[in-house]
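Here comes my example:
=====
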Amino acid sequence: MSDLYQVIGVIFVAAITPGPNNILVLEASLRRDIKGAVSIISGIVFGSVVVFFLILIGLVKVMQAVPIATNIIAGLGSLYLIYIGVKLFKRTGIKQGGPKAKLLPGNALGIVTFQFINPKTWVLLSTVISTSYYSLEWSIIVITLIAVTTVCLLIWAIAGLVLSSIFSNQMIYKSFERGMALSLILLAVSILFKAGSGL
């Protein structure tokens, strides 16, 4: 049972903290696009599950044989997140287009595919598998992944709906967006540093 709690904790921290997925959900809900937010959450969760199974059925062997592969994927993904963060920081406001329109994928297929290069997804799933692969059934891990990730992203969606009236002020939203951009850059740099230390 302690292993399950550990998995829940790892997934919760990864899913609730700011990242590209959270930004996509938040901006959809800020536009009061409920259908879009639900679609994005579904794409994120489905994509994460697909990556999990790919790691489970084959990539885990590759990562065991060539440990550097995981670091390279995480490193390249982190560089992309830094690029997104910089672009997001320079943006002038949500009404002129958000990450969904310019920087991050906007359709369901794109969001699913994006999980393959999202370093947060790789770091999360690699950690979960390495800590629970021999102690928990894969079905329990998948159900936990789906449930916890969905709840965390719904929290971001609800926050967007609640704050949408406040963020209609472009000055306030611009300040918030820059804060999100900096947190995304810091996240990417920390993952990049860890990936680099493993090379």
Q: What stands out?
A: Confidence is low (pLDDT under 50) at residues 95-101. The radius of gyration is 17 Å. The chain has eight helices and no strands. The helical segments are 2-16, 20-30, 34-65, 68-90, 108-114, 119-132, 138-163, 170-197.
